[in-house]
């Protein structure tokens, strides 16, 4: 099976459309979105229309749209973007995001998925301690996550479970899975990368070939920049797209 996994599109439809062109050319069997289809940029409904055709998880920005008090944890630019998003989502899309789940499994590909982590749906896996706690909570070989907007591979050796390694991924990159290892794969962000590379990022998992491809792709950043400015989004949110931060 060939599976595309995309996360953190954040209402950036220009980025998502560019990603979907590549996904469609790869003839994947399944497409999963790992949450945060909304927030930050001004086309959340268009992003959700694409997600609805496939499978989607609850991200913290969807959660904030339906639980307004949660958005108080966000910085002021993100809070303003959530307010804008909530006021602009269709009734159908509010209903859709309110029913999203926090985890998904693909029984055929034998993978698990979450937005941020299994320990807490919106926790950031950024340390070996947190990675280890999450490895304890799934039995499949691979857990796919998003949330940090930084692509990465956490590898656990079956022989030495405390031996966890982190490989950060800044460019397109393919690696072969090893049968004596388990993985937490952070698939990066389609719509707002934060690793210094402004190109979007997503992943294709091939369960027969047993490999994972990180795909970095260009998209017309200036289109999203202008749409976001025109919608009155915070200029910091617009400018950061060009730097990938
Ligand atoms: Fe996000």
From TrEMBL:
GO molecular function annotations of the record: phosphatase activity
Gene3D superfamilies in UniProt: 3.60.21.10
GO terms for cellular component: cytoplasm
Superkingdom of source: Bacteria
Calcineurin-like phosphoesterase domain residues: 1-206
Family: Belongs to the metallophosphoesterase superfamily. YfcE family.
PANTHER family attached to this UniProt entry: BLL5683 PROTEIN, METALLOPHOSPHOESTERASE
Name of the featured protein: Serine/threonine protein phosphatase family protein
Organism of derivation: Peptoclostridium acidaminophilum DSM 3953
Highest classification ranks of the organism: Bacteria, Bacillati, Bacillota, Clostridia, Peptostreptococcales
């Amino acid at each position: 099976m060939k599976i595309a996994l995309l996360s953190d599109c954040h209402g950036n439809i220009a980025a998502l459309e560019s990603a979907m062109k590549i996904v469609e050319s790869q003839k994947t069997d399944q497409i999963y979105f790992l949450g945060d289809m909304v927030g930050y940029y001004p086309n959340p409904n268009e992003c959700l229309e694409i997600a609805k055709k496939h499978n989607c998880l609850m991200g913290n920005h969807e959660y904030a749209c339906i639980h307004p008090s949660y958005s108080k944890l966000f910085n002021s630019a993100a809070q303003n973007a959530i307010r804008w998003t909530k006021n602009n989502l269709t009734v159908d899309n509010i209903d859709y995001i309110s029913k999203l789940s926090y985890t998904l499994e693909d029984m055929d590909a034998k993978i698990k998925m979450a937005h941020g982590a299994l320990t807490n749906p919106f926790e950031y896996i950024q340390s070996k301690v947190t990675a280890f706690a999450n490895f304890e909570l799934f039995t499949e070989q691979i857990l796919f996550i998003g949330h940090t907007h930084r692509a990465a591979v956490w590898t656990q050796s079956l022989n030495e479970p405390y031996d966890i390694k982190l490989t950060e991924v800044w460019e397109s990159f393919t690696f072969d899975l090893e049968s004596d290892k388990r993985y937490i794969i952070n698939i990066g962000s389609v719509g707002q990368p934060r690793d210094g590379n402004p190109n979007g990022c997503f992943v294709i998992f091939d369960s027969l070939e047993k490999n994972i491809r990180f795909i970095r792709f260009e998209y017309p950043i200036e289109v999203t920049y202008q749409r976001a400015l025109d919608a009155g989004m915070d200029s910091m949110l617009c400018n950061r797209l060009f730097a990938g931060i």
